[in-house]
Amino acid sequence: MHVLITGGAGFLGVPLANQLAALGHHVRVLDDLSAGDRDRLDRRVALTRGDTRDIPKLWTLLRGVDCVYHLAARVSVPESILYPVEYNAVNVGGTVALMTAVRDAQVKRVVLASSGAVYGEQAVQPVSEDAVPHPQTPYAVSKLAAEQYVLALGALWGIETVILRIFNAYGPGQPIPPAHAPVIPQFLKQALGGGSLVVYGNGEQTRDFVYVLDVVEALQAAGTAAGVDRAVINIGSGTEVSINELVRKVGEAVGCTPHVLYSSAESGGVSRLVADVRKAREKLGFRPRISLDEGLRRTLAEDPQFGR
Ligand code: NAD
Fold it and tell me: Closest ligand 1 atom, CA of 175?
């Protein structure tokens, strides 16, 4: 199979690209390297530096491609509140541009990496794909708009589309930017450094943490599975974990009793979020394999950022 992965130099894109290349597929990556790390890509992966809004570049890259995995996006919720215009331009504009180029190049299938963030606050948990989305941040709005464009344009132009709503992915290779870092690598870094773990809110808010290789497996399956056209599918662990519980688990993994500093809650944060993954099992044969304890151990052992 010939595939293009947009955002393929990023946290989720690199293991997807490397795995597909290892399986003998022809893998191209388009990434503007605004985040991501080209050095983690296998040498069999062909990287082109560029923007998903550059339609002529997409025409060239899409020649002969069977499936596009669209991962390129700006991904920080707090940053999206500061820069909604930029988030809309990249996450929505980039998706529309990609879909038009996909139509022109007659690519068969597009898999979109969307987000569990589209749900917002939901009374019923675990949240199923039938829940009415209630996006509460520009990031979440942009992901939902991207979904809607992919579904509508795919239906209009006869392109197969699959939407994966990924919950909180973590694992080796997840960057720790100085501002707004994702919670797991941030906690691991803080615990290893002997500092306080900063919890926003009272720590009783829950999330669904899913290991990176489980997500990669789901993405891979979405590229080839039958009977998934226009499906919207949750990808999570299906396990609800509070941030206070996460603190304890990080302490166990690192081998310390972390000191916790409670700070004011982040805007746009929801009180509970856990995925109903029954549809993923049914449509993609998806079974999350790596528990949070095991995933934290692997992250510490395999991610050079933690120097273990
Ligand atoms: P990431 O930031 O590591 O990867 C995104 C990649 O896209 C980066 O390499 C970046 O350089 C690239 N990029 C950004 N703007 C671009 C543009 N205009 N043109 C080309 N490339 C561009 O993030 P990630 O965690 O790997 O996320 C990948 C996708 O999965 C995103 O669409 C994100 O919304 C979605 N997602 C991720 C998670 C998670 O927990 N990591 C959860 C839900 C959804």
Answer: 3
